[in-house]
Specification:
The chain has 19 helices and no strands. By secondary structure, the protein is mostly helical. The protein has one domain.
Length: 401
């Protein structure tokens, strides 16, 4: 065991290292933002009065950025309030702002969640909270997400605030978590529906839905409610037809069905399974003394398995690493093994002495199916951890707020 002073020094060192790394990977990054041009291009279309779901938007993006056959916009209407300001900036400045916001949000969300556990009666050494921030910073998906300009860190923050809001019964924090998760409905719908069955969460859920509607209102006013919904659904139907979204490139149950059973299951098909499992977990756990923390853990772990995600999305589920501290060692072991795999999937491949990945790194197109397969093992371990939380009695001394 570390002495109090040594633990404090270790916490300071890890926090400093994590924050310095985030600054380097955001403010000083020169990586090619391969995904961000779509976000910026949609913001530009919004600034020019074009609906993001219109066929004119991909044409505008292709013209502005010299991209051949850009994908349609798959995200829900509330993104208007985020991307409309982004679209007013030059793209090089916009990606700097985007990376800085995401890096800052990661740090705030990680510290907010780690500080919630001691307040809920789950004692953690100070260095453990700093270690969680360091882990969330150095997990392979974080620099990849910042480099590409993706939005996965918003979902990480959403789950952090969701868990903190549940554990501490903080209505505003829980509402913020649901709002962020609903930016990607395949995460947010299951998390929101689980709250329907948790006593005392109706107010937070109402606030989150109201805020989501308010954020989408400019899109509806400018382009009409019915046309927006119809065009959005039409774009969603085209999602699985995009090559990068094929099941073989995805983590979790979708990968298992595609690789071993040769069944292609889209997120639209698997979402009801995730919703049902999350609501079932909430129903089973809500009366337990540690019910709220257990529900947060189960909702995140079930999403990790059921929701088809890309390898860079795996950062979203990192809150499991510290939430596992509220449970006994079987749950911790399954969770931390899962998180260790997520930290560096390539090391698992090398450790097992399997054929080497092709040159170019874990996230190049030809290597993604292999990375996704490794991460699917991590997703399966998360499912096992969720099952253990459901089946095992609460840890002695654990309590809900």
């Amino acid at each position: 065991m570390l002495s109090r002073d040594a633990g404090r020094l270790a916490a300071i060192a890890m926090t400093t290292l994590a924050l310095a790394y985030l600054v380097v990977k955001s403010a000083f990054s020169h990586d090619d933002p391969s995904e961000f041009p779509m976000f910026w291009g949609v913001g530009r279309a919004m600034a020019e009065g074009i609906s993001p779901y219109s066929p004119r938007t991909p044409l505008l993006i292709g013209t502005l950025l010299s991209i051949e056959d850009p994908a349609p916009w798959f995200y829900p209407p509330q993104w208007f309030v985020i991307l409309r300001p982004i679209g007013l900036l030059p793209m090089d400045r916009a990606i700097e702002v985007w990376r800085a916001i995401n890096a800052l949000l990661l740090a705030i969300a990680a510290m907010a969640l780690s500080r919630a556990l001691p307040r809920a009666g789950i004692m953690l050494p100070e260095w453990a909270m700093a270690l969680f921030l360091l882990f969330a910073t150095f997990i392979q998906a974080t620099p990849a997400t910042l480099a590409m300009g993706q939005s996965s860190l918003l979902i990480f923050a959403g789950y952090c605030f969701y868990a903190r809001g549940l554990i501490l019964s903080e209505r505003a924090t829980l509402a913020l978590g649901v709002f962020l998760l609903l930016l990607k409905p395949h995460f947010g719908v299951a998390a929101a529906m689980a709250l329907v069955l948790v006593p005392g969460c109706g107010g937070a859920l109402f606030i989150a839905v109201l805020a989501t509607g308010a954020a989408a209102l400019p899109q509806f006013v400018l382009h009409g409610f019915a046309p927006t919904i119809v065009d959005f659904i039409g774009n969603i139907r085209a999602y699985g037809g995009q090559a990068p979204n094929a099941p073989i490139y995805m983590n979790g149950l979708s990968q298992i069905l595609s690789r071993f059973l040769h069944v292609g299951a889209s997120g639209i098909v698997l979402l009801p399974l995730c919703v049902a499992a999350s609501m079932g977990a909430a129903l089973a756990l809500r009366a337990r003394v540690d019910g709220r923390g257990a529900i947060a853990f189960a909702v995140i772990a079930l999403a990790m398995f059921f929701v088809p995600t890309h390898p860079y999305d795996i950062i979203a589920f990192a809150p499991l690493a510290i939430l596992a501290m509220a449970f006994d060692w079987p749950v911790r072991a399954a969770t931390w093994l899962s998180m260790a795999i997520c930290l560096r999937p390539r090391l698992v491949w090398d450790f097992l002495s399997l054929p080497a990945l092709r040159p170019g790194g874990d996230t190049t197109p030809q290597n993604i199916p292999l990375t996704a397969l490794i991460l699917t093992v991590a997703c399966t371990l998360a499912l096992i951890a969720a099952a253990l939380v459901l089946l095992r009695p609460p840890v002695s001394g654990a309590r809900a707020r």
